[in-house]
Specification:
Number of strands of chain B: 1
Mean pLDDT of chain A: 80
Distance between the termini of chain B: 44 Å
Largest sheet of chain B: none
Strand content of chain B: under 5%
Radius of gyration of chain A: 36 Å
Distance between the termini of chain A: 64 Å
Structural class of chain B: mainly alpha
Low-confidence stretches of chain A: none
Strand content of chain A: under 5%
Number of strands of chain A: 1
Helix content of chain B: over 70%
Number of helices of chain A: 6
Oligomer: heterodimer
């Protein structure tokens, strides 16, 4: 009898109850256990351990379950709120970009007129134009990050956000 | 027989898929039902893993919060119980790493761990006491063996998980699972033999 056979026996003993083993393996294992005291002893120990451990039971208390549910619900609400907020910021940013792009031509003309009319240096007018162009996006970003959701109660964006929340649920 | 097996498989797939959908939507009703269904199993696993009921209860709550947060990662193709235990395993490891930088093997059980409750009353008081003594003795022996072995024993004998599932859950090779199972049983052997004398 070699080490490989003991290893195979231990593997089959381990697998027999949960995964199940083939009839061939059952016959081989039985004949091996009949002639190998060590493996037979291991099989006995495995059975006893299994039986002993199955006799343990642990009950979760009702208060633990209730408090867990309360925590999970609170966290779920928090996650939904932050997700909606991210959505709101994304929409606002997109709107800001659209407004900025559409108004770029106007600002460009206004800049040109100011250079001609007041003889301003382009070193001032250039950055001023870029700032004006980005102003709607910057303004929306600052407002959304700085103020909590309740400040938008009743606004169009708030309605959009709530509609999306209802869609998710 | 094949049709019955296929039907059972299809039912399981549907159930797991429903759970996955519910978790993606963070549906409170699905989460409530899952907490209800897996409460005892999860707590038992965590108690065995940490050796302390109070810690296990904290980790129990933390596990469900993690399930909520990572719910979108559950694809419904594997058993939910296995996925849940994987989350619990990771939560426990994170907790132990935060508490002190040691491995699971070095974790010792606290003395105030609540005892396991007996399953059901035996017919005679003598048998009740005897059974309780056996359980207490085996529980004490379990507490003495390294956590890495205890965890495999719990997943195998209490959760009835396949060796491959355990390997996936703990993220170790299958051969290591077999070794841990073998060594865990061997570690319990003196206690088990002592009880049978």
């Amino acid at each position: 009898m070699n080490g490989h056979e003991h290893e195979r026996a231990a593997d089959l003993i381990s697998r027999r109850d949960v995964e199940g083993i083939s009839d061939t393996d059952v016959h081989w294992l039985e004949s091996h256990l009949a002639s190998c005291e060590d493996c037979a002893s291991y099989e006995l120990a495995m059975g006893s351990a299994q039986q002993a451990m199955r006799s343990f039971t642990v009950m979760a208390s009702a208060s633990l379950v209730e408090s867990t549910r309360a925590r999970v619900h609170a966290r779920a609400a928090q996650l939904r709120e932050s997700e909606s907020r991210r959505y709101l910021i994304a929409i606002s940013f997109a709107m800001g970009v659209v407004v900025s792009t559409l108004s770029a031509w106007v600002w460009w003309r206004v800049g040109g007129w100011m250079v001609e009319r007041f003889s301003l240096p382009s070193a001032i007018v250039g950055p001023g134009l870029v700032l004006s162009w980005l102003l709607p996006v910057i303004f929306l970003g600052v407002v959304l990050v700085a103020f909590p959701e309740s400040n938008f109660e009743g606004s169009l964006m708030h309605l959009v956000m709530k509609a999306r929340q209802r869609g998710i649920q | 027989m094949v049709a019955a097996a296929f039907s059972a498989l299809a039912t399981m797939e549907t159930e797991e898929a429903q759970i996955a959908t519910g978790l993606r939507r963070r549906d409170p009703e699905v989460l409530d039902a899952l907490i209800e269904q897996y409460q005892h199993r999860l707590l038992r696993y965590l108690i065995h893993l940490t050796g302390d009921r109070a810690t296990a209860e904290d980790l129990f709550q933390e596990t469900w919060i993690r399930v909520l947060e990572k719910g979108h990662q559950y694809d419904g193709k594997s058993k939910f119980a296995t996925w849940l235990m994987t989350i619990a395993h990771n939560v426990a490891i994170d907790h132990l790493r935060k508490r002190r930088p040691v491995s699971l093997d070095e974790m010792r059980d606290s003395e105030d761990a609540a005892p396991f409750e007996p399953v059901a009353a035996d017919p005679s008081p003598f048998e009740q006491v005897s059974a309780l003594e056996d359980r207490t003795r085996i529980h004490a022996a379990l507490e003495q063996i390294p956590t890495i072995f205890r965890e495999v024993l719990v997943l195998r004998f209490q959760e009835q998980m396949k060796l491959e599932e355990i390997a996936k859950l703990i993220n170790i090779p299958l051969a290591t699972v077999k070794t841990r199972l073998y060594r865990g049983v061997q570690a319990l052997r003196p206690t088990l033999q002592g009880g049978s004398k």
